[in-house]
Amino acid sequence: MKFLFYCGAFCGAISGTVAVPAVAQQGEPLARVEAERERTERVAREIWELAELGYQETRSSGLLIDELEGAGFTIRPGVADIPTAFVAEWGSAGPVIGLLAEFDALPGITQSDAPTRDPVEGKHAGHACGHNLFGAGSLTAAIAIRNWLEATGTPGRVRLYGTPAEEGGSGKVYMARAGLFDDADFVIDWHPADANSAASRMSLANRSAKFRFRGTSAHAAGAPERGRSALDGVEAMNMMVNMMREHTSMDTRIHYVITDGGKAPNVVPDFAEVFYYVRHSDADEVRALWPRIEAAAQGAAMGTGTKVDWEIIHGNNPTLPLESLQTMMDAKLRSLQPVEYTPAELEWARGIRESLGEDAPALVQSREVEPYGVETGYGSTDVGDVSRAVPTVSVRTATWVPGTSAHSWQAVAASGHSYGAKGTQQAAKAMVLAAVELYTNPQLRDRAKAEFTAALGEGYVYESLLGDRAPPLDYRN
C-alpha cells in the first residue's frame, strides 16, 4: 500500500517552509473550501450537462463568470480575442496568484452517470477529461482564497483564468501569447485523474494541422479517367507518414484521423481532409519533424494530381515543472484527510471498476497519494505555455475510479457523479493550501522564481508552436 501520512513539521522541511500549528496553517482555509461544497457540486454538474465543445462554451463560461461576479471578482471577458475566455480578479495589492479553469468537452463520446455503458441519445459530446470538474474546482478554490485573504487581511490578489478549448484548441497558448500571465507571480493548475499525485510531470510538445486535399470529381465507374481523388491524396500522405515513423526518435508520437473522405463510393471525391497531431518531449524536435509532414502532404498531392493546403490548429510547449513548488504541493496534498465515500458511491465505483477489467487497481487508491517523483507524461497540454510564462504548480486528484483512462465513457460517468465531485473538493483544498503557502512564505517565492529563471536558461525567449495565427474559433464546427 502506498503511504499516506499527516504532514506537520516534516512537510515543512521538504517544502522549504517553516512549520506552523496545523490550525493556523490549514483549518480556516480548508473550512472555507468546505463551505463551497454545494457550489462545487452544482457548477460541476451544470457544466457536465452542457458539454460544450472548445470555443463554443458560451454557457459554461458564462456560468463561471456569474458565480465570480457574485463573489465580488472583477471580470475581463473575451480576452485574447476569444469570446469564451476571461480573467477574473479580486484584491489590489500583494503577490498575484492565478488559477486555471477549463470547461470544454470532447466530441463523439457521451455517457450518463451510470456505472455501465449508457450513451445519451441526441448528445454528441461529453466531459471525458473532466473539465467540468476542473472549472468547478478552480472556481471553489478561487472564492475560498478570496475569502481567506479578506478575512485575514493578507496582502494578495487572486485571479481565475477562464481558459477555453484545451482539447486541441490551445486556448491558453493564445492567452499566454497575449501576455495575460506576464504580471502574475504564480499559477496553480490541477487536473482530474484516477489517482492523487503532485509529481513533477513534464508533458509532450504538440502541433496539429488539418491537411485539405482538393481534386476533381467524376463518376467513379463511368468516367474514372476524368477524376482526381482528393481521398487518394489523403491516403498517399498517410502511407508516407506511416513509413516515416521508422525514422523518428523514440519519443515521437504521430496520430491522424480522416475527417472528410467523401460521401459516396461512386463519386470521385473532390475534397478530403486529414487531421494530424505530432508530439515530442522537445519542442524543437516537433519543429524539426513538421517540415517532413508538410513534405509528405506535398508529395502526396503531386503523385495523385491533387492540390493540398493546411491550417495549423494548435500547438503546445511541454510543461516546465519546478521541484520547489511541486514538493510543496505534494506536502499539501498529503496533509489532507482522505476522501470518505458513502456506501452508495462505493457500490457505484465497483460497477465502474468491473468494466475496467480484472487488473484494474483497487478502489482504495482513490484515498492514497502516489509517491512523489519526476516523470514524463505522453499527453500534451496548453498549460505548458503557461508554465513557460510564469512559475506554475500542478496537482492531480482522484475524481475517477482507479484505472480509468481519460477520454473514456467511464471518465464521463465519474465526472458527472458525486464520486468525481468529492475528488474535486480535494483538489480545491490542495490548491488553497498551496496558495496560502505562497502568499505567506517569501522565501519559497524567491526560491521558486530563481529555479524558474534557471530552468528556462539565460536569454530564453518564449515562442509558441502556433506562429501568429488567430484563435481557431471554428475548429470544432
Automatic annotation (TrEMBL):
Domain Peptidase M20 dimerisation: 208-298
Keyword Flavoprotein: no
The keyword Hydrolase is assigned to this record: yes
Source organism superkingdom: Bacteria
InterPro entries per UniProt: Amidohydrolase, Aminobenzoyl-glu_utiliz_pB, Bact_exopeptidase_dim_dom, Peptidase_M20, Peptidase_M20/M20A_hydrolases, Peptidase_M20_dimer
Keyword set, alphabetical order: Hydrolase
Pfam families: M20_dimer, Peptidase_M20
Signal sequence range: none
Protein's recorded name: Amidohydrolase
Species of provenance: Qipengyuania spongiae
